[in-house]
Structure formats: C-alpha cells, structure tokens
Design a protein that fits this description.
The chain has 19 helices and 17 strands. The chain is an alpha/beta fold and about 500 residues long. Bound molecules: D-serine.
C-alpha cells in the first residue's frame, strides 16, 4: 500500500482503493473510446502530461480518486434549481441529501454558521456574495414605505431605481498588481462595473499590505463592501484588523479565501489569520489548496445567509449536483488529521522554495512568503514574465506569469512568475525537493534571453540556450518519478 508522503503514517488519499480506481478508470476510458476516441486520448494524455511536469501553478492541485470519481455519476442528470427543500423541480430528494451533506461538512470544517455549496466557481461565489450583500443592505429609495425590505423584493419600478442606484454603491478591494483578483473590483470585470470601485495596494518599499493606508482609504471612500483576500499576494493577512476597519466605516467585510482555503481548513491560518470568524461573508473555490473538485462555496453570518441562499436562480444556473457531491467528499477528506499535516507542509515547502531562490540571488516580491505562494520578480534575469513562463514550460515546469506591483510590463506580458506549492506537496515533495525546484528554475531563467520579432523588440519571443530544456526536463522527471502522481494508478 502506498504511504502518505506527508505524514508517512496515514495512507495517501486513494491508496487503499487504488486498484479498484485503476480498474474503474480503464473501463471508463474504454467506454469513452468507443464514442469519441479523441476525448479518450486527450484524457489519457492529460494525466501523462501532469505526471511528467512540475506543476507550480498556485491555484491548482490534484484531487483524490474518490473526489474525481464522485463527479462522474448520474447526479449530473438532475435539475435542482432552488435551495435545499425548496426546489423548482420535482424529485430532488437525493440532491437535497447531497447539498445538505456538503454544506454540513463546510460549516463544521470552517466553523461557519451557514454554508452554500452551489457556486460553480470562485467567480460565481463572489457574485452570489456581492448580490447577497446588496440584497441585505441596500434599501431601494422610496420603497421602504411601500413595505419593500430589500432588492430581492423590488417591483419593476424599483428595479429601475435600483439600476440608477447601483452605480453609487462602493467596493474597495486589493488591486490586481498587488495580488488582488479580477472580481475584487477590476474595471474590466462585472465587479468593477456594478460598483463604484477603488483599490488598495501594498507598501512600495516592502510590498506588504499597509493596514494604516488601507484604513485611510476606507475612511475616505466609505465602501459598502471591503474585500479581503488575494490571488497573488505571498503573505498572510490579519483579518481581525480588516474587520475593525470595515466596522469603523460601516462596510461589510467580504473575504475571498479561494487561494488559501486549504491553509484555513488545515489550521495553518488560525486566530486573526482565519477569515471566517471575522468576515461577514467568506467565499472560496474548492479546487485550489483545498484539493477538491472545481467549484465554489459561500460561508456567511446569519444576517446574510437568507440572501446567499437565493443564489440560484438569482445569480446561478442549476446546481451541479455531481460536483456538490464531490465537494462533500473533498470536505470530508479535509476534516481528517492528515489534511492538517498536508496544509502545514504546503506552507513549509513555500518557505523552502523562497529560500532556494533567495540564496541563488533571485528577487521575490515582499522578500519571501508565509503562505503557499512565491512571487518571483524576473526582471533581474532580463526577461518578461511571458518569456520566463514559456522557457520554463519548454523545460517541463508549469507556472503562470503574473503582474508584480507597479509592473512595467502590464498585466499581459508581466514581470513576475507566480509559483505555488499545493500540487507538488500533494505528490510528496518536501523542502529538499523544493530547493531543487528553485535551482532548476534559476538555471532555466539564467539561460533565457529575449529575442527580437520581425517588427522589433518582443516581450514574448525568447531563446533558451541549447540543451537547457532537455537537461532541466530530465532533472525534473527524476524528481517527479520519485514522487509519483496517483501512485499505483495504472491506466
Ligand atoms: N484562476 C485563479 C488563479 O489562478 O488564481 C483565480 O481565478
């Protein structure tokens, strides 16, 4: 039996049923092959590619076979718009069970009074949350006298007035180049259009969140919603301080913990660093550090729970019952003690990765990490983030380019590479392997040069010294072979 590389005492997720899972996958792929062989081939190729590359995308992971298999069932065939016990379709008794179990695990895992398991993604979870906050807090002007309590009860005339009023609601979130997410008020996203938005950044010297500057911005701007959380900020956040700021200006604190939900679930982030006791509404995805299926969750205090519960059909299409079932399985896994050891190892490995870069002279945004993210500034290598991302991919290292604060290359070409440890930690990598990963990345970037396009300098074209890609990929393959993905799973 494969042993969990994280704890060396508990079985790896799936280790005890890996033979059954192998047989199931072989049968499934054969069935798919008879209908559309290209899909069977792409599915086989995907696991081969994932097995033989260093997956460092901070928002990705590997779910257990139990989570993956749960998604492939007939629960997919059922419509269940509405909420538990109150559906717009008949025959939803089993979906009610599934959603109840998923929500129960989420409440208990995160210590939240209420959990909503339907969102199909993190963006959907944020939209549900924004709408619920509006529905709870925004009274349509002049309609309160007519007995209208909130925006969900509006008449056509009320909607007309609300549309005018929505432009004046304010949202304050972290800027994209400081590590915030598109849905935290970025102008090209609906969140930057439905609200009057403003962003807070980080200290230009340290790259760290400056709570005094944030408080000042909140006092000036007086947002309805203060958004906490990030996609590319390599540090922990003090959510108790954020709540104090929100309370002072009368804002609702919404925290998007999509990236670090696994560290919250695994009790690495506790006290002031755990958003759930401090935020009015907390949103997350389930597939990043939490290691579940692709999807979202919303957690809320009682004040907001009724409005969140109306997420479908207000904001969302019919629930994906098969995915909610997989969320329940993943959340049950995350409640096991082995998950806490995993989460601690994710954070320890990020530190080892950061130290590996620093000792080789590379520059990191904020000078290090205390979560699962390392943000490498590639300017000292003389390349853009886009060139670095491509050269690394050629060498079997999968990363994503990312803006850094005040990025001279903008959000498309960028000057940074975002790296995360959740996926390779699931494979069993420890601090020594992450140090070697840093060595390989520095090796590739030191041998990458910008190349000119026919029209002049290019921020995308690059050349990699002969033999580097092959040599580094071979070294990566050695690390990967020692830490196999889905050990024992043969297709
Ligand atoms: N795509 C996710 C990420 O990579 O952080 C956020 O939406």
């Amino acid at each position: 039996m494969a042993v969990d590389p994280v704890t060396t005492s508990a079985p790896a997720p799936g280790a005890d049923y890996v033979e059954t899972a192998s047989a199931a996958y072989r049968d499934i792929l054969q069935i798919i092959e008879t209908v559309e062989p290209r899909i069977a081939a792409a599915t086989r190729k995907e696991i081969a590619d994932q097995r033989d590359s260093l997956k460092l995308i901070a928002s990705e992971n590997y779910a257990s076979p139990a989570v993956l298999l749960t998604m492939g069932t007939w629960l997919s065939d059922k419509y269940a718009e509405g909420t538990i016990g109150h559906r717009f379709y008949a025959g939803c008794q089993n979906v009610d069970t599934v959603e109840t179990v998923a929500a129960e695990h989420a409440r208990e895992l995160f210590g939240a009074p209420y959990a909503y398991a339907q969102p199909h993604s993190g963006i959907d979870a944020n939209l549900v949350a924004y709408w619920a906050i509006l529905a709870t807090r925004v009274e349509a002007p002049g309609l309160a006298d007519a007995g209208v309590k909130n925006v969900n009860d509006l008449s056509e005339e009320g909607w007309e007035k609300l549309r005018a009023q929505l432009g004046n609601q304010r949202l304050l979130g972290m800027s994209l180049d400081a590590g915030g997410h598109l849905t935290h008020g970025f102008r090209p996203n609906i969140s930057g259009k439905m609200f009057h938005q403003r962003s807070y950044g980080t200290d230009p010297e340290t790259g760290l969140l400056d709570y005094d500057a944030l408080a000042k911005a909140a006092r000036e701007f007086k947002p309805l919603i203060l958004v906490g959380g990030y996609s590319a900020y390599p540090r922990r956040i003090n959510f108790a301080k954020m709540r104090e700021i929100a309370d002072e200006v009368g804002a609702t604190l919404m925290v998007d913990m999509a990236h670090f939900a696994g560290l919250v679930a695994g009790k690495v982030f506790t006290g002031d660093e755990d958003p759930v006791p401090h935020a009015h509404v907390t949103t997350t995805t389930t597939h990043k550090s939490l290691r579940g299926p692709r999807g979202g969750l919303v957690l809320a205090t009682p004040e907001y729970s009724d409005a969140v519960d109306k997420g479908c059909p207000m904001v969302l299409g019919g629930p994906l019952s098969h995915v909610m079932a997989a969320k329940a399985v993943a959340l049950a896994e995350a409640r096991q003690p082995a998950f806490q050891a995993y989460a601690q190892r994710v954070a320890d490995n990020a530190k080892a990765l950061a130290e590996g870069f620093l000792k080789r002279g590379a520059r990191l945004v904020t000078g290090g990490t205390d979560n699962h993210i390392v943000l490498l500034d590639v300017q000292s290598f003389g390349v853009t983030g886009r060139q670095a991302e491509s050269a690394l991919l050629d060498s079997g290292i999968v990363t994503n380019r990312n803006s850094i604060p005040a990025d001279p290359n903008g959000a498309w070409y960028t000057s940074g590479i975002r790296l995360g440890t959740p996926a390779l930690t699931t494979r069993g990598f420890g601090p020594d392997e992450f140090d070697r990963v840093a060595e390989l990345i520095v090796d590739v970037l030191a041998k990458t040069e910008p190349a000119a396009a026919a029209s002049g300098p290019s921020k995308a074209k690059y050349s990699l010294a002969d033999g580097t890609a092959e040599r580094v990929h071979a070294a990566a393959s050695e690390l990967l072979a020692a830490n196999p993905l889905y050990p024992g799973l043969t297709l």
